[in-house]
Structure formats: structure tokens, C-alpha cells
Amino acid sequence: MMAASLLRRDKKATAAHLKADLNRTDNCAGARQLQELLDTVLNPETPATDTEALDWCKCLIAGGDGFDEFCKTVRSYDNATLCGLVWTANFVAYRCRTCGISPCMSLCAECFNNGDHTGHDFNMFRSQAGGACDCGDSNVMRESGFCRRHRLKTGENVPSVPRELLLMSEMVLPRFIISVIQYLREGYTEPDSGSERDLQKVLQQLEPQISFLEELTKMGGAMRTVLTKILTNQQTFKDLSMGQEGSPYAKQNYEKYLSALKNSGLVSVEEKALPASAESPAGEEEATGALASSGAAAAGSTEEASKEEDPDGGQALGQRKRVKLSSTTKDTSIMDSLKHKCFLEELLFWTIKYEFPQKMVTFLLNMLPDQDYKITFTKTFVQHYAFIMKTLMKSHESDTMSNRIVHISVQLFSNEELARHVTEECQLLDVMVTVLLYMMESCLVKSELQDEEKSRHVVVNCGEALLKNNTYWPLVSDFINILSHQSVAKKFLEDHSLLMLWMSFVSFFQGMNLNKREMNEHVEFESQTYYAAFAAELEACAQPMWGLLTHCKVKETQEYTKTVVRYCLEALQLWFDAIGFVDEPAPNQVTFHLPLHRYYAMFLSKAVKCQGLDLDSLLPDQEMLMKIMVHPLQIQASLSEIHSNMWVRNGLQIKGQAMTYVQSHFCNSMIDPDIYLLQVCASRLDPDYFISSVFERFKVVDLLTMASVHQNALLDSEQERPMLEGALTFLVILTSLRLHLGMTDDEILRSEMVSQLCMNDRTHSSLLDLIPENPNPKSGIVPGSCSFEEMLSAVADFKAPVFEPGGSMQQGMYTPKAEVWEKEFDPIMVVLRTVYRRDVQSAMDRYAAFLKQSGIHTGNPWPPYKERSPLHPSYKGLVQLLHCKTLHIVIFTLLYKIWMDHQNMSEHVLCMVLYLIELGLDNQDQEHKEEEEPCIEEHCHDSWFPGTSLLSNLHHVINFVRVRVPETAPEVKREPPPSTSTEATSFGPNLREAQVFSLVAERRRKFQEIINRSSTEASAQVVRPKSSSTRWVPPGTPPQLVTEILEVRESMLSLLIKLHQKLSAKQNSLPAGWLEEAAAAAEAAAAEAAAGGGPADAGRHTHGDGITAIERILTKAAGRSRHSQRSIQEICGKVCPPVPPKKSSPADKKTLDKEERRTRARERQQKLLAEFASRQKSFMETAMDVESPDGEAAMDLGLTELMDSEILYDCVICGQSGPSTEDRPTGLVVLLQASSVLGHRCKTGEAKKLPTSDEEHIYAADTCGVAHDLRLALMQRFFRESSCLQSVSIGWDGGVYVQTCGHTLHIDCHKSYMESLRNDQVLQGFSVDKGEFTCPLCRQFANSVIPCRPGPGLEAGAWHCPSNKKPSVLVKEVEDLQGLMAPFPTVSNLSKEMELVIKDIKNTTQKKYMDYGKNPGSPDNDFLFMYSVARTNLELELVHRGGHLCSGGASGAAKRSCLNQLFQVLATHMRLYSIDSAYNPWTRLTQVTKSQLEEGPEVDRREVAMLFRDVPSLLIIFVLTMPQPLRKEHFTCVVKMLYNLQFVQALAALSAQFSPEERQAWSMSGTPKKNAANGEKCFEALLSHVIGELSSDETIYRLNAAEPTVLSSSVWSPQSIEFSLRQFCLPYLRIASLLQHHLYGDVLTECLQEDEFWTLVVGLGLLAPGPQTPSSSSSPIPSASCLEWPGVSAFQLVTQWCEEMKGLPETQAEHTLELVPFRSPQTLLVQDPQWGAPRLLQLPDNYNILFQYYHRKACSACQKVPKDPALCLVCGTFVCLKGPCCKQQGTCECVLHSQHCGAATGIFLLINASVIIIIRGHRFCLWGSVYLDAHGEEDRDLRRGKPLFLCAERYRVLEQQWVSHTFDHINKRWGPHYNGL
Q1: Mean of pLDDT values over 1733-1752
Q2: Are the beta carbons of 925 and 880 closer than 8 angstroms?
Q3: What confidence tens digit (pLDDT) does each residue in 1127-1150 have?
Q4: Residues forming beta bridges with residue 1345, ordered by sequence position
Q5: Residues 6+ apart with CB under 8 A from 860
Q6: Contact yes or no for 1282/1275 (Cβ under 8 A)
Q7: Which helix (H) or strand (E) holds 92?
Q8: How many CB atoms lie under 10 A from the CB of residue 1572?
Q9: What is residue 710's three-state secondary structure?
């Protein structure tokens, strides 16, 4: 009852009261009270979702304090020295290879950034499976890499924990934990019942409880100690695990737990009944016996027992057998069900049962920094290992589960100390191997290799989910991880029974995924199981092998190697027996998986290379070697078959296998060991036997006949050539590859690198990826060996990343150095390493290009012959291959066939044959001394050659050969000639010695001999397969074979010399004296090289084509043997009788002529091409220039007709040329786009910095767009709306920019073009419905067409010299012109098109950028928008020219300008609006009008004062509203009048910046000058007048003075005022000059920056060009001298303008003073028209700074950390890419921001990918990255995680494209974004 009363009281008070009770010495009562309370609170029958219990626990643990307070207190006692931060998938962590001891070491970002890793080999990575921070753990990483926090051993100075603090925790937590466990027991259901996924529900309900446990672990070391005690205490578990006695619920709950435990061992309960002999560990011999006797590789005899374990038990396999583990496993605990002794064990058990929920995993891992816990937990984990495997195999979410398992195991097994401890205590290795075996046994099938019926071998079935989904991955990865620790690996290698088990595991993969060649029809279904097979061999077999090999590097480890080799051989023997292999492989089958062979090969290689073992001691007998060589050889032959398209009916996947087999990640575990093994076999077996086996396997035996016609029973004729090439190439690789035969690791790395670089230039990362990891680990530097980087810089040059004009981003590439091409290019290595055959071609092409470029050889070179490094003495036997009769006969036959032009011979065959000859000459067989040629009579029919030495056989002449040919063959026709000649008489006896040659018979005989030698009784068993006999008797189809005798009379040397002639197409290519010259040349070259001249002539001999190769061989042969030398001279003499020197010249001349003719032809071709290119170019240029032929050109030619004639346009669609007419207008292809580039300009030209910390900010208030918006808003408060809208320009933000490619087309042609595009469904990233298209000629992107106005090119009148009319006359004329109403345009095609374009222009930008007036859509508003378009385009052109016009007309922008056409369209449209003459600014600009103020009360607000108006806007309005075309004199008049206004504005603005005293002074000093003759053209006079006028209204200066100005501090001198005035007027002058340039074609002259003002003034006609050219040195003409007043007194006009400003509604100004400081209308006076160039933000140099700040930053809109954060590079806004959180009306945030910030152009940096994307309207594209690593490469998606640095070059290009609006043209890969970014 007491508990009930406690429950009703306040929780905190109760807790405090209980804590006090418990702290007494006799605390029984308190303890009892607490237990009773807990019984009620933690009653297991209340649902888990009830949070009351949790609250109680928190209060009780805190003992009356607040829980958060309690947490703080406990944290202060934290004594942990490890970081141990646990993270889950997708977390960004770091790995430093320099600091790591274990390869799995990882650090959290905080520890990484706080440690010092400068110059280390580190990378950032996104965690796949989750992990934990190792900072502070010296078992995993070096202490030098610890961060500042964990470097200090914090544990020492932390006070000890007071007992009472954690007392309550010790009492409450055990009860809390058991209650969690009870919920888990209760909630668990076996997955096979229907209620399958209720587990997730249970976990969701328990979420708060588990999170609470997780919270506790984060309180630091003190709390972890308490938890460890509770979790590992066996007594507590005993007491609580059963639940309370007598409670039926608890009992039931416990039983559920027991039943769940039942099947947790490997052997299920039913099997227990069988007597287990496992108690006594079986001795080794016994075990071996048990395995061997069972026949199949380690397949035991226990039948599959529990069906529950394996639902498809019996069906798939007739007799699938299970390994009898009882005999080998030392530890029974793997077999039995689990028994739990503490909470930790049961918690782990449920974690596994529930398939590793993330929260539970995190809780278990968070505890790891506690050392005691770590050890107990690791043991528990090992104990549950088998159970984990079983659960994993049943799981449906095996991927997630795998990741979570590895997340845990990698923390435990990476620590060598711990791994060793568990290996010793818990038999970790036994557990792992056994568990892996069990796992693989679940998917074994019968092997179909060799003899299907009799085979007893079982292999894994690659189609099973277990292999397909890589389910075995976590277990294998753990195994590899623990083998990386030396102490553990040694235990493994010492334990023979374990090694045997492992070999039986490996043999499950031997021969898996068998391919059978489809002979008849194409396979219906291409299985993709080969992925699984290759992955399985690599991960489950090869990687553990490499792990073991790393520990077998020194002499001391010899014994290990011997053991492994012994067991490999045993396993191989078992395998041969099991598949029933005798001596012939089954035809048309191949498996790429021979892991046993490869284990054997790699351990052999290590033994010889590193451990100094004798090879012969490790090799089996000859018969076994013959067997071993068969399957690897079968693979090599099959590779050739696959490339010869013999397997095409098996589908693409077979090609995939052939490619994977040699691919960089697999080659060193697959093809390299295979070739090495074949090399070993070749060096120990009879060479004749080996060679004939090769040709037989490659199925080309029938081809090797002297006869010109033969039958091949096995190959179609088109397959013969590639197969022969394959066989020869294979022999060359076999005899010349030295990878495992004596090359050092450095040499291997070098040759790998060279061969990859020769195929293609490579980036650093792709090179790292392409070079096999073993035997050279690329991570970490092996002491004493050359590092990857050093080697790279030795063989390659770095090409920095350039930016190509096409816009494609180049990466930094490495390209081979010249001397590498010259001396190290090794085509053999390239062939071995190419995945695609085209790479070999690419390497040869690059080689040829190099030779051409360096002038070594110009023709088509042959692969160069490369000298090899010497063979390791153990492998000397390999040389015999080159010195065996069989090979020599083949070589002789092939040379003969090539010379006779038999079919299916090729250059490649000859090349390989020559390579073999040369290899033979370079590798002399030791046994044969030179010149003595033993003639051993062998009684067999290979007496072609007397001996086996190649040198002596070269000059051996063969006279007759006996061949079997079909009757139809040409050889049969030849009847022997009548016996008149002596030849014929000797013909008879020679028949006896005619040579016959049958490779196969030979091979059989050899094989028989060897077998007999090795065992007499064995020979009885050798039954020849039937196939072999039939193979040699081709089917008895007609034609019959007959034996004929061929007369040959050639030796190899003579054939070579004849081939030389054939290749060089000259009769006497090798004159008799040739050898002496060659020898002399060689000697000279040698001498020169010795003298330090370098290999002068070496290039001539090593590089070249077949001719060079033959010469090189002949020279070598002559040099090595006098006999050969004599033969060569004889043959040369015979073949080409010595000719007097005179005669040889014409022949030479002929060839010379031939060469010359060729070069001439080539030159002609070049010339033609060049001419064509230049024509094309000029055509393009004229096409661009169409709209504005240069003015001067026309003048110079004096072609007055040209003036009046109409402009002709070419239509790029129909190709016709003609004028543009009203009916059939021509248009200019243009792209209209909205732009805010101008609005983003700032006063300074400096780029703003991107904030990378919370302290930094970007303010947008100082941009041009904001300033203009404010100005307009202010005007609208005080002045008449319509007048305001004519006093400013808009379009700074969202203005429409027009650009063209310069091509024209008929508008009706364009319409039909658009129609055809619409019907064409294959659209390339643009939307035809929006009017987008690409220019039909240059394919530039466009979206509209501007019609060209018909009429003469440029108004004839415009060219007259300036007229001498008085200014007042011109002013009047201008006024009249303005008064003229526009004739209403007649409706024609042209006017319709013009209206359409206007519509297009309006649709280009958003509504908000057009409506600035109070009533949107009013004519005034429209009018403002129209003339602002002109203004935007002029301003942008100015920006593109660099913000000034100093560079004159040279800018490329002018060439393709379409402003002329644009103005015409705008003018036509604007003439529809008439300006009310009462309000016409022109009158107020040029006349003194009567003051309008007296005209009664104001109805409307007044007009904007002239001094507030924007002068360039007025200029554009005047020009566009006057009738077109405008005479130039009128244009100049307008410019002059407006200059006056601009000048006075400048004076007024300046005067507002003076201090009152200065103003007084200037006013005084200027007064006297007013009456002077030139008073009106003197700035002092005008200034003093302005000051006088404006001072009368004291508000003006008072309000402006308060504004702090930059210049107020300095004193104003006449020079500084003059300078400021000029700066103030420049922007207006620039706009006016550009306008004049476009309307009248005036050329802009180039000038210096300081003379720009004068140049422009003169150009505009404001100042007659004077004799002295203004320059900075001579006293410059004052700017006021350009003023020209319109026949009215200047002072009156100025007075009138100033009057307009006075008397503005002062009241309003005052009452807004507090709200908007200084925003009276008078402040409109101070305007500064100068803006800097538009810039993107300045980014930090190091990407990490930016990444660390932004990748965890929360979005300001949704307050969440975005999944894909992005940054706007224009304004720095942080946005969520694709985030549904920030969507508005279905549009995602990036797209919204691009509309708001850049008028639909956005430039975003994706933080997590380091890539920039561009959004343009409805399309987007990936632009590339501006951050590159140290090797000039991008790292998209940060996959490699190397440090990245800003590439200023690329960033400039990006900015350039933004400013010039060329994203659409330069970037090609656009796609629609559907508002989803």
C-alpha cells in the first residue's frame, strides 16, 4: 500500500525523500519502499507507450533535483580519454592514413579540425554504415594525431564521484533495463508467422525508453561505469531475469524468451539428439582423414537435419551434404544454443532478433569508451556470431542489417589488442571460419564442370540471394579485418585444422558460375550472376589471401607458406578427383573462378620473392603440374574465343566476364596469378608439350600447315585469324611478362603506371583507381619503396586544367614524358591491362603521334620491342619455351605462309612471330654453346631441325615438306616436270626426308612419356578421350585429303629477308654489303652513347615498322653467330645480285618521287581545307555584320548608291537573299532574357565576401537595384505619377536583355521551322511551346525574331556634315518633330510582327519587374518599360565593354549587336503614345516658361523637377519618340541640351556636398564671372548662381547637409570640382555615344582612360575637335566649355530649374523625418550615377571552411538542416535544394530564389557536391565545379573527399558567363527542372 501512497505524492519530493532514506546506514526500509514503488511504476503489464514510468525513473535517478541539473553534475565527473562519438550513415567524417594504425580508423569533424593533420594523406568521407570516432585510442591511431582535447589524459585530474550522486541510478536502472527487456520479449514474434513486421511497431513504442538509455551513455564516464556494472553483473541478471515469483505474466514472459533462444546455435535442437563427439578435439590426422575420405572437397556426411533451417533443403541438390564440423571444431559453443548470464548478453540477443535497430546499436556503441564494457561486449558479440549469421540470412532488409553489423564489428575488431585477446579466449577464428562455412553451405549445388554425371564437387550457386545481394559481406569483412593483425594472422597460419577448413571453404568457389558455349541459338535469358561470382571470389577468397600474404614477407615465416602451399595442393588434388579430371578439359566450357589455383600461385610467388624458398621444393610432380596448367590455360584460350566472337550466342554477359577478369580491381587477383602459374608450369614441363598444348587449346593446329588450303574442324575461317593472333600474343606475354618473375615492387608500379598513361592521359584519381592495389598498397608508404606520387612525377608530366573555349571543363591530367614513350612504352603490358580492345589502338595511335612529332619515325609504327628485366634464377626454365623445335616449326610455317600470302595471315601475326624470334635471340638457352650444333637424331618425325637452339635453327634450310591437302588444292595440280633437269632426279630420294608435322600426335606422345616416367601403373588408366581420334580425321566429306610434297628450300633467315623485300616493296631491299654497314653504324652509335652523346641511333632501331624489326633481328642474329652472319650474306647475295651503284639510284629516285608526290598531295589537301575554313569564317563574319556595315567603309568607297539602296539580308533557312519588305519581313534571330546583373552592381568594384561564420553578413542595401527602387518610391510620394514614370529607368532588376548570333531569316520561314520543331519529338532541352529554338545555321539558342525595318541602310541625310543651323533653330525643329503625331502604322505583316516581338519582350520578364506605377498596365507604365529596355541593353553593353568606352569599337559585342533593330521596334511602339505638349520636358529644357504656380490651386501633384530627372532616360525617350529615322543634327541637338541639364545637376549635387562656409566662398568667388563674356560657359559662374538660387529655400541644403558624405573632409579646389563634374557627366556621355554608335554607325575611337571624357565629347559633337589633342599633361579644357545654351540665357534657365525644387511640401518632409531619416524629396538631388562592375561573391580558398559552416547550417525558412543545402553565389542566400520543406505552390526554393534574385537566372553552389548548377528559366544545367584538388580535379559529390581549393580561373569564367549572359550558348547539357530544384 505504501507504494500507492507514494505514487500520489509529488515525484520530486518523493525522490528526494527516498534518496535521503537510502543514504542512511540502515537503508533497508528505504530500499524496500523503492522496490515496491518500482514494482508499481515499472509494471510490465502497462503498455510501453505510457510515459509516466519514464518520468518517475528520471525523477528518482536525479534524486529530487531536476534531471538536466543532474546530467550537468554527472558530466563534470567525466573521466573519459576517448572521444567515442558514434555516428550513423551519411555522417561526414575523416580518415587520416598518416595517423591511422588500422585502415578503418576514423575521426569526427571536431576532433579532426582540432588535431594537426597538415600535409597528411587524409580524406573526408560520407559514412556508409556508421562509425565511431577513434580519437584518443592509441590502439587504432598514432597519438600525434589526437586532437587537443584527447591528447591530455583527462582522466587524471577529475575528482572521484561521490557515492550518493549515482546511488539512485544503481538501484533504479537494473529495474528499468529488465522492464525494457521484458517489453522486447513480449513484443517479439517469429518472422514466419503472418504478423511479420510488428517488430517495427514494438520498437516505435519503446523509442522513448531506448533514447533515455542513450542519453545516459552521453553523460560521460561516471554514468557509463554504473551502466557497465549493471549490464555485466551476473547476479542481478539471475535475480531479475525470471521476473517476480508467482506473477503468471513474468513466467509467460520468461518462457517466450527461452523459446526464442532455442534455435540460436548452428545445430538446431533436434540435432542435439545425435551423439556429439565434439567434446574431444580431434587430432589433425583424424580430421584430415575425415575430410579426405568423404570424397568431395570437405563435404561431410551429416544429412540436412532441420527443415526449418533450410526450406529448400532436399530439392535443389540431389545429395547436398553438410560439412561434418564435429570433427574439426574445438569449441562446442558455436554449435549449441546460447545461454545468457547477464543483461548485456540478453540485450544483444534482442538487438539481433530485432535486426539491429539503429537506436539500440547506438546505445551499445556509446558504451564502448568504457574498457571493461568493451571487453565483455566483444566476447558477447563473438558468442552471438553464429546467431547473427542466421538472422542475417533470414532478414529481408539484409543491406541495412549488414551496415549495422559492420558498424559494431569494425569498432571491436580493428583493435589488435582486443582482437588477439578474443582470438585466444573465445576462439574467434574458429567461430568465423565455421560460421562462413555454414553460411555458404546453404547455397551449394553440384558442379557441372568436366564430367557432369560423375562429378562429386559442389560449388556455391551464384544465383542465390546470399551471393547476389552480397549478404555474406559483413562476415567476410570482419574476417579480413582481423587477419590484418599480425598476431591473429599468425595464429591462423599455425592452426592446421583451421587452414584445412578454410581451403574447403575456398574450394566451394572453385569452378563456380560455369559458362557453356551456346552453339546453336542465342541464349534466351542472359543471367547476370557473374557480378555475384566475381564479387564473391574477390571478397571471400582473394582479400583474405592478400591479408595473409602481407604477413608472409620475411624468411622467418617460411613455414607458414609451406603449410599453405601444402594444403592448396591437397585441396587441388581433391578437386581434380571430385570433378573426375584426367588430362583433357571438357570442350566449350569455361569458368573464370579458380581461387585454389590462385592461392597456390600467390603463395609460390611470395615464397620465391620474399622468403628465399626453393621453388622446386614447393612444386608437385609433372603429372600434377600438367593438370594444374589446364584450367588457367583454358581461360586464356576462352578470352581469345570471346574476343573472336565465338561466344556471341551467350550474350553480352560473357564479354562482361572477360572484361571483369582483366579489370584493374580484379586483375591482380585473377589474370596475374593465372599467367604466373602458367609460367611456372612452362618452366618445369617439357616445352614441346607445352607449346603444342597452347596451340591445341587455341584450336589453331589445323591452320599451322604449309598447305595453302586446309580444313579446320573447330573454327570458322573468320575466327582463325583472331585466334592465331590470340595464341601468339599469349605466348609473347607468357615469355616476356616479368610481374612475378623478378621485378621489384617499384618496377611493377612503374610499368603499371606507364601502361595506363600510354592508353590515355589520366587524372590522378582515375590513375589511382586503375593501378592494382596489391602487391603495392597505395595507401600509406611502405618503408623502402617508392611512393605513388614520386613514381608519378618520374614518369608523367602534369597538364594543368585549362578551360576550353567550348565551355567544357578540363581536369588536371597526367601525360607520359617523352622519354617514357621512347624507352618504356610496353605494348605487351598494355595488351594485358586493357579492358577494351580500343585502348590498345589508342595507345598505338598516341605512340605513333609521339614518334611523328619527335621526328623519329613518320610511318605507321609497329609495337616497339622492349628489353626485359632479367629472370629470377628459379624461373630460368621458361627460356626453353623459346628454344624448342615445336615453336620453331610453327614460326617457320607462319613465316612461309605470310610470305606466300596464305589466307588469314595478318600484320599482327607477323609482328608477334618476329617478337618471339627476337625474345629467343635475347634469351639464349644456357645449355647450347654457340656454334657447336649438336645433331641429336631423334627417332620421331620432328627432325625438321637438328637441335633446339633458335640461333642454330635460324639458318637451317628445309627442303621438302609433306602436307596433307584436299584434292582441290593448287598444290595437287603440279605434275613433277619431265626428268630432264637435275632437280627432278634428286626428287625421288628426297621424298624420304620430306618433313611431316602433326602437333597433336606429338603432344600425345610426350604426355604418354611423362606419365610413364612418373608412374608405370598410372599409364594403364590413361584412356584417351574419344574426341581426340576423331579430331584428326575430318568428317569424310569430299574433297578427300591427299598427301603432297612441297618443295620449300628456305630457312627462317631467307624467309625473313624475303619478307623484308615484300614489306619494303623493293627488289633488293637488303644489298649484300648491308650487314657490314649496319654493324658499323651500330658500333658508332654505341661509341657515341659511351662518349655521353646519348643513344643517338637507338631510336632508329627500336622504333619503326616491320622493316626495322626484321633488320634488327638479322643484325642480332649476325652478331650472335658467325654461321648466321655467313648465311645472311649468302642469301642477300643470292636474292639481290650485286648491282653497280649507278643503277640503284633510279629505283631510289622512284621511291623518293613517290614520297614526294605523297607529301605534295598532302600539302594540297591542307591548302584546300584551310581555304574552305577561311571562306566559312568570312561567311560567318559577313552574316554577323549584316545589320551594320561599317560607316567608313561605305564612305571610302564613295558608293553613294549604297546609301540609297536597300540592305539585303540572307535567310539562313531558304538561302535566298533580298531586302526586308512590309509583306515579307526578314528578322534577326535573338535571345531575349530577363537579367538582374545590373541591379547587383555596388558602388565599389570589390566583390563581397561570402560569410563563413555567424559573425559575417552580407547587406544588399548598397546595390544599384535597391538604390533605384528607393529613388522611384520617393518620387512617387511627391510628384505626379506620369511624370515620375518618365524621370527614371527601371530594368536594373529583371530588365530584358537582347542578344543575337547575327543570322537573319524570313519570318514566314521561321514559322514553318518552328512548326517542324514542334512535330519533332526528340527535343534537346528546350521548349518549342515557349518559342525556343536553335538558330538553324549556328545552333545558338534563341527564343524570338526581331523584324528588320525595310528601307535604306542608314538614312542618307544622316551622313551630311553637321549643318550650320543655329542652336535655337534646331531646338525649334526638334520641338516640331515631337509635336508631329505618328502616322498610325498601317496593318501589315511587319507591324504585326513588331507587336508580337513587343509581346515577347513583355513575356520575358516577370510582372513585378514591369509594374512600378500605382496603376499597373497603364500607358505610362508601358511607356516606362519600353524605353527602359533600351536603357538596359545600352548599360549592359557598357558593362561588357568594361564599364567605359576607352577600347573603342574593338569590342566583339558590337559585331553581333541587334540594338539598331531593337530601337526601331521600340520606337515604332512608343510613337503610339503622344507626350502631352503641356508637360513636354523638352520645353522646360529649352525655354523659360511662365511660372505655372500661379495657375490657381494645384489639382494634381506637380511635375518632377528637371534637376531630379534621370538624364540618360530623357535622352532615350526623346530619341525613341521622334519620327524615325532621326537626322543626326537633331540627335546632336538633343544630346547638347541634355548635357546642359546634366551639368547643372552635377553642380547642384556637388554644392549639396559642400560645407556652408565653402558654399558661401564659392558663391562669392563666382558672382563676378557671371557678367563676363563667357559666363555661361564657366562653371564657377554657374555654380555660384546655383548656390544662390538653392540657398533661398533653406530646407534644401539643411536636409542634405545631415547626410554624411565621403568627400566632406577634403577641401574643394577648382581641379577637384572639375574632376567630379566630369565623373558625374561621364555615364550620360557614354550612353549617348553608344546610342549614336548604334543609330548612325559612328565608330568609337580608342583612347586612354583619362582622355575618355574628351574623346566622347568630341565624338558627340559637343565640342569641335580642336587643334590640340587634350591630354592629361596640357591644361585640359574645362567641362563647362562644352555647354551650348539654346538661345535663352543660361542663368534664367538654371533659375527656372532651381525654382521647381523649391516649395516642395515641407510639412511632409518633416513628419516623415523620424520614420525615414533624410528622405525629403530634396535628397533626390544627390545622385551618384557611378557603379562598379557586377561581381559574384568572393569565395574562401579552402572548400573545407565553406563546407564545415554550411553543411550543418539550418535553413532560415524551415529551421531544419537541409539534405541538399545550396548557396546563391550572387547574393549569398542559403537555400534548400529540392527540399519539400520550403516549397511554395509546388515550386522549390532554388527556383523561387532564382526568380527573385536573378529574374530566373540562378547560380548555386551545392554544398554537399561542390558542384555549381545554373538555373535559367525553366531549364537547369550542371556547370561544373570551381573547387579543384591538388591535382586539378573536380570531386563531384565529394566522393574522394580530398582537400579542395578554389580555382580562380574557373570562377572568373563563371562570372564572365554570368555578366555576359552566355550560359545558354556555352553550356550544352540543359534539362527541364519542373520547378523541382
Answers
A1: 93
A2: yes
A3: 888 888 776 544 433 333 444 445
A4: 1229
A5: 848, 1105
A6: no
A7: strand 92-96
A8: 12
A9: coil
